[in-house]
Amino acid sequence: MKRYQNLLLIAAVILLAALPLVMVKRPPHGPDAKDVEIFKGADDQAKDLIGTIAPDYKPWFSSIMEPPSGEVASLLFALQAALGAGFIGYYLGCSVTRAKLQKEQNNSRC
Fold first, then answer.
1. What is the pLDDT of residues 44-81, one digit of tens each?
2. Closest by alpha carbon to 48, among 64, 65, 31?
3. Is residue 24 a contact partner of residue 38, using CB atoms and an 8 Å limit?
4. Can you give the pTM of this predicted structure?
């Protein structure tokens, strides 16, 4: 029973991740006849909004490195997320193992 339960949970997670991507409808072209990006990042939206509110605004600084394309930027973001998740998982695993070993050591002394 547990195996089927795990398979159902995995299928539910995949469905929850894929269903919104399938159900989203592409909006019509924007006022400048360009395709509207559905999953545009919040940084770009904020930059565009600042540009409409204060057209003469000058940024305080510029990026150290500008990725050559959106795919490279996504790759770097995914790499950063994977490294962060790996570090957190490693830390939690070490902490749990350390606590378990200390508990076993304390029980063996009694």
1. 778 888 889 988 988 888 888 887 877 888 888 899 99
2. 31
3. yes
4. 0.47
